[in-house]
Amino acid sequence: MGTISERRRKDGSVIYTAQVRVMRDGKSVSTSSSFERRSAAQAWLKRKETEVQKPNGFDRLRRTKRSEATLADAIDKYVSQSEQQIGRTKAQVLDAIKRYQIADMACDDIHSKDIIEFAQELLAGGRKPQTVANYLSHLSAIFQIAAPAWKMQLDPAEMKAAMVVSKRLGMTQKSAKRDRRPTLPEMDMLMQHFAERSIRANAIPMHRICAFALFSTRRQDEITRLEWDNLEAGRILVKDMKHPGQKIGNDVWVDLPPEAEAIIHSMPKIAPQIFPYKATAITAAFTRACKLLAIEDLHFHDLRHEGVSRQFEMGKTIPQAASVSGHRSWSSLQRYAHLRQTGDRWTDWKWEQTPRHNSATPS
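RE: above sequence
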């Protein structure tokens, strides 16, 4: 009644497809599912064969005959039919999930146990509990809409149960708030490093971008989306600003500190974007430089943290700081409320104003 077939993928891995086919009174019905382990395929096959042998099992199998959609199919559906553009990080996570065994499972065969095993597999692969939490969070969004939207039988209750268990077992954790701030010597080293490389043809003006990130408090993706047409005296429109409930279409006007505005006006107009470079290239350049200069545990995003901290140390109120950072919820800025008004440590910083960058081809 049941069979298991093997198929080798292009990458050399083997996938096992279990199929149950039943014939009764001239009527045939079949169902199948694919797995990366033969043992998993055998377990599924045994369970389905047992279900068919139960009273009314054949009729129940025929009534519930599905399109044999897998979790990978649901992910593809979610990505292709989402009205809002999916963020780069979320898209990368969903694509990564498709490489795991759970993605080959039929939607209505996925239970909390399978999701927990997936979380364990992520941990065994070296991912941190915070990363596992992000994976499950992104996957949860698909479980919430798959059944009502596309009749793909992913059970949100199973996902909810798995997330509760994973948290209690310590398999998932919230990301800790980073408090790393760059020191003046560290920034001096980075700026000197990038300035020396800026004379190269088509070089990204990283010394300018780093200073702008610090003074403007902008995220790297936001920096690369800033446009000349959206620049006004003392302020600029940030398109698609990051927000938990809405990113695409969340366009926000923010105030520009004088130092940030001066950097903008030092940039050549070679494209609609003020900083026409790829966010990934900026990240890579920053990471390489920190490694070369032996600067430990410093991320590009820490420049934004420094910029927001600077606002409070200069004596700015929460509303004033929010007008620069773009925080919609003032509660998000409470973590900075403890900072004392100590003044601006970046006053007279030699890299505050840098010479005009020569025209470079966007990378």
